Structures are given as C-alpha cells and as structure tokens.
Task: inverse folding
C-alpha cells in the first residue's frame, strides 16, 4: 500500500471470484482507475466469493457464513468497490436481507452495504472522476447487466465515463436491458434456454455493427464472449474498466488468444 | 361440519395472526394510516376536459359529430349511416331524451328494450370521462345493457357538459344517486376489438364494429 | 388442467425447437412491451401509482376477512348470491349445481383464470353441459384442446395458419381449401358462430378483474365485449374470483384500473370496462335474473402467512411474462400449468406443490425485469429465491447442485486454500488455453460448452498477481 498525503481515502477492492480466477486485468484496471482518482487501493487477502451461488440456490446457510466472512474481511475501509453489479448487489441488497434477523450481524451487514459501490458508479458519483486524454478508436456497444441495472442503478455512469474517451462511438443495441442468459448457475442448469437468450443478445450486438461489446460484469461478458466465439464472430468483449483504464488494447479480449 | 365460508374466514384469521375479532373500524383507520387522505395519481392534461376526452375517444378508433340540440340528432345519425350497410332501421333505447329527436323520414325507428334485433342501436350516455375518453352508461329502465353490445353500429348521445375529468368524479356522481350502483355500469372506450389472432388488431370482435358519438352542445 | 410442471425441461426443449411457436413469441414483445412503455412514460407519476396499488393491496390483504364479509353483505343486499369454495372440487360442485338447478343446457364463458385453475370446463363437460369459451383466444384454444399459454392472450402461441386449420376443421368439416385466411375473415367467422351461442346460453360464467367491498361490485375488463355479452344475455350470471381480487372501495378500484390496462395491454382503458352489481333490477329491461359469485381459496389463505402474501397482490396483468426473457424464449406451455412466466413460477408451486414443480423456481436468471414492471411491485425474484430456499431446506434440490455447492463453499470459506488451488488450477488452464484464448470443450463444463466457448483465464489469479505487485512496489 502506498500511502500518500493526498489520498482521498482507502478503497478495498472486492475483485470478485471471476476476476480473480479468469481476468486479473479487470482487477488491475479497476485499481488503476481508483488510484488515478486519488484513492489508496487495498485488496484484502481474505476475499474469495461474495456467496451469491449459494444465496441464489437457496443455500442460505453457506451464504450466511460467507457473508460474515466478507463483512469481517472488509471492516474499516472507507469504501468497498466492486467491478461487478452482480456481486455488488449481493453485498448491498442481499447481505442485509440475509442477516436481517441476526442481532449480531444485521447492523454490520447494513453498514457494509452503505460503504459498498459498483466501480463505475463510484467513479462518477463519489470520485466525480473526469477522465482525460483517453483514446480508443472504434464502435462499441454496452450491455446493461441485470443486477447492475436493477439492483445498483447502473446505467448512465459507464456511459458518462465512456463519453470522455476520444475516438470511441457508442451505439446502443436493441434490448440492452434484457438479460443475456447468464444468470449464475442458471446457464448450466438450463443450458438450452440460456443459449437462446445469449443468441438473442449476440444478434442485437451484431446488428449495431459495433466491433466491441462492453459490460460491467464478467459473468455476462464470459457468456456473451463465449457465444460470440462459438459463432466465430469478430466482435470483441471487454470489461468496461479495461477500456477506461486504457488497457484494453494491451490485453487480449475475453476468449481471444495472445497473438 | 363448518361451512366453507367459515373455514376460509377462519384460515384467513389464523394466517393473519389475528387474535381479536375482525373490526371494520380498525380496518378503516389502518387504511388511513397506510394510504392517507391522498388520492390515486392520475393522468393530467393541459387543455380542457372536453378536448382531452375527444382526443382519447378518437385514439380508441371511435368517431363523433357535434350537434347543437338533441332535436338535430336525427339528421346526424342519418348522415353517419348514409355510407354504411346498416339498413335504415335504428333501435332506440327507451330514454326520454330521445323523445326530443326529430327523425328524418329516411330512417325508421323502433324502441328497443334489448339489443337482440338491433343492427343499429342508439343509447344515451350518462357521463364521459376525460382521462380515458370513455363513455359511461348506467343500465336501467331507459338504458338496456345489451343494446350497447349487440348492434354492429352503436351510436351514443352525450351532453357536452356531462364530461367529467376522472374516474373518481364518476364514482362521486354515482354516489349522489344514492343506493346501489346500477346492475351494469359500462365504461365504453371505442368499438369492440381483439388482437387474439397473431396480435393483429381487429375491430368488431363480438361487440359493435363501430362506435359513434353524437355530442350535444346545448342543454334544452 | 392437471399440472405438467414436472416436465418443464422436456417441454422447454420442445418449445425452443418449435418454429411456429418461436415465430408467435416474437409478437409478445412487439405487441405488449412497447405499448406499455409509451403509456407508462406518459403517465405523470406511474411510480406513485404503483406505490398506491401496492399499498391498497397490502392493506386489503391485512384485513381480508373484514372486507370479504363486507363484500358478501353488499352482494346479498343487491340480490346476489355469494358462494365460498375452499378447493377446486368445491368450486366445480357449486357451479355445476347452479347450472343443474337452472336446467341449463348451454353455458357461455368469458375468460377466467380462476376457472382454468379449478378446471371448470372439465367439470362442466363431465356434467353434460355444452360449454363455449367466448373470448376469441380462449375459443381458439378450446377448439385446439389446449390450455392457455398467456394469462392475457391465451392463444398467443397460435399462428394464423394453425387457426385457419382449426376453423376449417371445426366450422367447415375440413372442406375449405385455403391454408391461410386473413385476420378479419377469421375474426368475423368466429363472431358469427359465437353470436348464436351468446343469444342461446342459459348461464354465463365470467371471471372478475377486481371486487369492490364498498358496493359488492365486480369489474370485468375486456376488449372484445364477450364478457358483457356473457353476463348480460343469459338468465343467470355466475362469476368466479380468487379472494385476493378484493379492494375496499371504488376509488381504490380506480387505481387498479389505471394500473391494469396500461400494464396488461398497453391501453389507457380497454374497450369495455364494466362494473356489475347483483342481478338485473326490477326496472331493468334486460340483464340476468340471478347473480352468483364464487369466491375461491384454493391455497390462497395459506399464502397469507409469511412472505408469500406479497404474491396475493397480483392483479393478473401479465406484464411480468411479457418482460421475461425466459417466457419469451419458451412460451407459456412449457411451465406446465395455467399460470406461466414469473408469476406462475411463484404461484404454481404454492398451489400445486413445491415437490411437483421443482424446476419452476429455478428456471429464472433472477434478472429482475419482471419486478421492475409489476404494477403492484411484487418482488418476484426474491420470492423465487425464497422458494429455492424452501426446496433446499426440504431436500428437493438436485444432488449435483448440492454437491457442487458444498465443494465450492468449502473452498470459499478457506481463502488460503482457495487461493492456492485457484493459482494451481488457473495456471494450468491458462497455459492450455493461452494460444487460442478459449476452449471448445472442457471436462465438467459440458452444459456451458454445448453452445458457448469457454474463455481461457489469463496467466495467474488476480490475488497472486496483486501480491506480487505489492512485493515489487515495496522492494
Ligand atoms: S405478478 Fe405483477 S406483473 Fe405479473 S401478472 Fe401479477 S401483477 Fe402483473
């Protein structure tokens, strides 16, 4: 941790399990943006997953254990920032619900929820970040992830940030607010239905003529990229943080090789 | 054995965790607490109620004509029917207002206590509702319900000053009449329609194929 | 109808492959979603209207016994009869008895989801009555001997070609050569046939969109006018409604009406919105001599207890299914019972039983679009999640899911081991997939890779790389 006198506070980055396992570049891009905005960034080592798979599958016992673990790991930070509306939503809406009747933890859950932010919303509403000197040429389209949109109110923030990127054109797709079919374990429990939904999504992406699709949730992005690649579509998929941090050009897009 | 009624009410009470006897006064005071004195949010418009009424009425694929007095209705009906395969018999609701109409001799009129024989039906609306462009017809001695639904051509008289802004004004008017609401209280907003075949809108599903309003300007 | 909800998976698969159905389903989006949005945007305070709708329903449910008794007393005063049915069987018996007492031969029916729920048609058929559905959509599926696939547009799954065929078979003994008739032509033919039924029916059965305690009235909301012909022409009108349809007074009904038409069909008002109170009065020149209303429990009182009470706010508008991506992909029949889509995935397990409907609460991505349009703010995703919890607690979750979750949770609770295992596994997977950037097949990931590639991970885990960076920085 590099403490500087100008630090606006310490942000604990909740990387999410998907970023941790599959796409560290999103974690680094997020950290870079937060540091650029003047915050000190820490990544608590005791983080694994937010517990959503258990919670959404009705396994509240495991979900509760993990929620408590996360609450403990993230004590004392000024902010918790999550590069995912879905995991963010689990912390802000579902932990308080899950621990509502636990006198020891209810307050702690609400308190954590109050400090927790989705990345783009944090950058716009708390950090009031003005991005300058960013270049990214091409046409992009943006997929609104369901939890981000409906649980965390993420819609305009990523678009506002992208608006500051020079050379970038944003073309909205039809039904940008409709689910891509990922749905956590849904995509493997009901693969055929999931495939239909992601195919619709891919059709809408293609129809815009964009060369890149962005989103704020790695789950959706893996699903969308996986389908794009299966169909041999040239459209690239990146997490929005990677474009905003200017690292999208350096790292291969999701599901693309290193050449 | 207890009746289904008692069993259902019993289950409601136990599942609501009710320990005391049901109490209408408690219900209405908790209603005030939950809903306050405020009323439902409702549509608003910039122009007058009649304009809003007619705009919505037209949007529902209905047509209208304006006459100065009730007496002029006859000619207006004849004009409306002139280019339609509707025959020349009109069935009139037994409404006193229709006694004042002078009918042109191109039309034959018949009094109807129901709509079973009517191809063209003429009835009188009690009110118009501006928020939705709906006509309001109360069933009764002068307004047979089936005359509103069986004819192919439904023609309705409405006095211009009988247009009220919102549903709530309709209830207020109805409560003024006292007693129970009429057996059948119809809001009619355009002709009958269906979209059950491939979501394609088709007028004249079971009820009238067309709805025409004669708006009477003056009180006479 | 008997529930086929336990066959959700094969039914969904079949639906995805049914090209006629897929073509028909695109129209749900076109027909309902856009129109609703225009009107909602126009309304000055639609969110406030939803709040009020929710508050009215919550209040009514909290005092349901009081308002039901009030309603009953008013109906009686107006000369009507009130019947109470705890179960499907009781509902059937009450209505069949009324028909018998009236020596009825023919019964016309307006669309009633409560009637579908208690299998009313089957009971009327068994009693030897000629029963005719009069809502055009219901009529079409009655000819096809199918259940509705949507609560507002029951025949939305049918193409024009299929309807042409059905009419040919039932109206023309298969003599027509045409394979595809125009919409006006089809509608007109049904109009002619059903007109005759309306005029000759002895009993008319309708549902009710809303009951009003203040006056003992019921609302009937239709576009075709079939509901009005059904209740006003026969000697006897029988209405059937769930006990949750009640609101305290007429002003509350205004709120429900404003929400219902906009949410259901994207209209400010349907062509015909009718309030019915009791039978015809002495001075009336037409209308039925007798009015009966059958109030249905069928599992609803059970829902009053606890969290699922929220589901009883439902006004059956269908907006949740219109906005559901899963419903849009598979249509209503895959859900296997009368209520499809999000509301059905909550209601069906509550009424039919959780053990017979295992897939329903799970076949949802929890995307929340349904909740965001529900006029009475039912938290459908939360309720589905609650049902999953009940399934989990009752041991109804599939073994594979439970084992998977246990292994995952074991690691998730042990950050150090998790980090280690992740680094090793990801390192391997990363090396294997680096060049191509994705896998077409992976062990244990068959469900994913059936239709998607699996993106390969980057070289190492974020935690490992971050700790590395930290070391380098402090060095
Ligand atoms: S759950 Fe809500 S959106 Fe769905 S039918 Fe009921 S009221 Fe309408």
Result:
């Amino acid at each position: 941790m590099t403490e500087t006198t100008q630090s606006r506070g310490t942000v604990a980055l909740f990387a999410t399990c998907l970023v941790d396992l599959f796409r560290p570049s999103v974690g680094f891009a997020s950290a870079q943006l937060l540091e650029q905005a003047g915050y000190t960034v820490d990544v608590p080592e005791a983080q694994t997953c937010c517990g959503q798979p258990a919670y959404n599958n009705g396994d509240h016992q495991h979900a509760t254990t993990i929620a408590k673990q996360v609450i403990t790991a993230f004590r004392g930070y000024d902010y918790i920032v999550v590069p995912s509306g879905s995991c963010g939503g689990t912390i802000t809406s579902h932990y308080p619900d899950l621990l509502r009747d636990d006198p020891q933890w209810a307050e702690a859950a609400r308190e954590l929820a109050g400090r927790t932010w989705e990345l783009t919303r944090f950058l716009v509403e708390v950090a009031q970040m003005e991005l300058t000197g960013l270049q990214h040429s091409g046409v992009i389209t943006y997929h609104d992830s369901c939890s981000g949109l409906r649980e965390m109110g993420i819609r305009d923030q990523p678009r506002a940030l992208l608006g500051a990127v020079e050379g970038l054109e944003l073309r909205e797709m039809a039904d940008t607010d409709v689910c891509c079919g990922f749905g956590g374990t849904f995509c493997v429990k009901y693969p055929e239905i999931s495939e239909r939904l992601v195919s619709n999504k891919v059709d809408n992406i293609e129809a815009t003529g964009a060369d890149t699709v962005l989103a704020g949730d790695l789950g959706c992005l893996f699903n969308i990229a996986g389908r794009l690649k299966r169909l041999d579509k040239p459209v690239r998929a990146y997490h929005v943080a990677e474009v905003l941090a200017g690292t999208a050009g350096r790292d291969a897009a999701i599901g693309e090789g290193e050449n | 054995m207890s009746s289904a009624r008692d069993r259902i009410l019993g289950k409601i009470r136990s599942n609501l965790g009710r320990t005391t006897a049901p109490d209408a006064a408690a219900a209405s005071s908790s209603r005030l607490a939950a809903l306050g004195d405020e009323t439902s949010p409702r549509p608003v418009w910039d122009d007058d109620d009649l304009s809003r009424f007619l705009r919505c009425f037209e949007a529902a694929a209905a047509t209208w004509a304006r006459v100065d007095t009730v007496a002029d209705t006859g000619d207006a009906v004849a004009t409306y029917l002139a280019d339609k395969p509707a025959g020349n018999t009109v069935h009139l609701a037994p409404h006193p207002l229709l006694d004042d109409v002078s009918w042109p001799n191109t039309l034959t009129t018949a009094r109807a206590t129901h709509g079973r024989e009517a191809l063209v039906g003429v009835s009188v609306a009690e009110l118009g509702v501006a928020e939705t462009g709906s006509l309001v017809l109360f069933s009764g001695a002068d307004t047979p319900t089936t005359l509103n639904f069986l004819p192919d051509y439904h023609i309705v008289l409405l006095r211009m000053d009988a247009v009220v802004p919102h549903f709530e004004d309709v209830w207020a008017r109805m409560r003024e009449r006292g007693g129970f609401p009429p057996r059948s209280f119809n809001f009619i907003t355009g002709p009958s329609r269906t979209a059950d075949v491939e979501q394609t809108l088709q007028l004249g599903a079971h009820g009238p194929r067309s709805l025409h309003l004669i708006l009477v300007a003056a009180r006479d | 109808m008997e529930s086929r909800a336990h066959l959700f998976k094969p039914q969904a698969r079949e639906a995805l492959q049914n090209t006629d159905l897929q073509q028909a389903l695109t129209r749900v989006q076109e027909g309902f979603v856009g129109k609703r949005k225009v009107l909602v945007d126009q309304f000055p305070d639609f969110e406030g209207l939803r709040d009020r709708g929710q508050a009215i329903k919550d209040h009514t449910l909290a005092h349901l016994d009081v308002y039901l008794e009030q309603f009953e007393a008013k109906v009686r005063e107006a000369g009507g009869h009130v019947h109470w049915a705890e179960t499907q069987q009781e509902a059937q018996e009450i209505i069949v008895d009324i028909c018998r007492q009236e020596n009825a031969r023919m019964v016309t029916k307006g669309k009633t989801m409560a009637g579908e729920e208690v299998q009313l048609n089957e009971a009327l058929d068994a009693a030897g009555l000629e029963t005719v559905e009069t809502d055009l959509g219901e009529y079409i599926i009655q000819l096809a001997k199918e259940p509705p696939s949507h609560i507002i547009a029951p025949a939305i799954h049918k193409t024009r070609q299929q309807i042409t065929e059905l009419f040919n078979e039932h109206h023309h003994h298969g003599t027509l050569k045409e394979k595809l008739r125009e919409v006006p032509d089809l509608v007109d033919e049904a109009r002619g046939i059903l007109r005759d039924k309306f005029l000759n029916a002895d009993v008319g059965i309708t549902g009710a969109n809303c009951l009003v305690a203040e006056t003992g009235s019921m609302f009937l909301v239709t576009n075709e006018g079939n509901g009005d012909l059904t209740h006003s022409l026969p000697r006897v009108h029988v209405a059937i409604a769930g006990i949750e349809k009640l609101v305290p007074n007429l002003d509350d009904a205004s709120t429900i009406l404003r929400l219902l038409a906009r949410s259901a069909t994207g209209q400010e008002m349907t062509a015909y919105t009718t309030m019915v109170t009791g039978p015809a009065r002495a001075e009336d020149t037409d209308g039925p001599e007798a009015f009966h209303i059958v109030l249905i429990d069928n599992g609803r009182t059970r829902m009053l207890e606890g969290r699922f009470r929220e589901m009883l706010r439902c006004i059956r508008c269908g907006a949740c299914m219109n906005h559901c991506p899963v419903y849009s992909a598979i249509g209503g029949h895959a859900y296997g019972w009368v209520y499809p889509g999000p509301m059905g995935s909550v209601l069906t397990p509550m009424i039919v039983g959780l053990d017979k409907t295992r897939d329903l609460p799970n076949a949802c991505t929890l995307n929340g679009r349904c909740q965001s349009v529900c006029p009475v703010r039912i938290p459908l995703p939360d309720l589905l999640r609650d049902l999953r919890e009940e399934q989990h607690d009752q041991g109804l979750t599939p073994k594979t899911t439970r084992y998977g979750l246990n292994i995952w949770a074991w690691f998730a609770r042990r950050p150090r081991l998790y980090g280690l295992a992740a680094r090793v596994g990801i390192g391997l997977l990363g090396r294997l997939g680096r060049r191509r950037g994705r896998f077409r097949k992976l062990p244990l990931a068959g469900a994913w890779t059936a239709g998607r590639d699996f993106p390969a991970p980057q070289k190492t885990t974020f935690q490992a790389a971050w700790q590395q960076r930290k070391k380098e920085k402090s060095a």
Notes: Chain C is about 50% helix and 10% strand.
